[in-house]
Specification:
Length: about 130
């Protein structure tokens, strides 16, 4: 059994921020934990524009705090997000998040991330192994 708190993850190597300061991700469950998925608490700063493309991962996101828009860059469709919204990137969709207020979300990745991935210039996480 693994029991962790976000307080004990804060300011450790499991607490990763984007180079531009737009987001912060606390990696609670990682590939090395052997669960077959990773689980993160991610906050995205209000007023930022964030483009992502998980070419190597499927991601499920549940928004627990904040409001903003999600744009599917493949289709142009825009979705309004608020607390309780969930989206699943099961087709490796390129997407844009634009928070009006700080967004806090719980995210699951498959395959699991190792914890040190940072989005490349195309918004993609590399496929790393533990």
């Amino acid at each position: 059994m693994i029991v962790r708190t976000t307080d004990e993850i804060t300011d450790t190597d499991r607490d990763v921020s984007s180079p531009n300061g737009n987001w912060r991700s606390k990696r609670i469950v990682l590939a090395a934990d052997g669960a077959g998925f990773s689980f993160h608490e991610t906050t995205i700063t209000a007023g930022t524009v964030n483009e992502f493309h998980y070419a190597n991962h499927v991601e499920a996101v549940w928004l627990v705090e904040g409001e903003g828009t999600l744009t599917d860059l493949e289709t142009g469709q825009v979705y309004e997000l608020g607390p309780g919204s969930m989206y699943l990137l099961d087709g490796h969709e390129r997407h844009r998040l634009e928070p009006r207020t700080q967004m806090r979300m719980l995210c699951v990745f498959n395959p699991p991330v190792t914890g040190q991935e940072v989005h490349d210039e195309n918004g993609v996480y590399p496929l790393l192994t533990a």
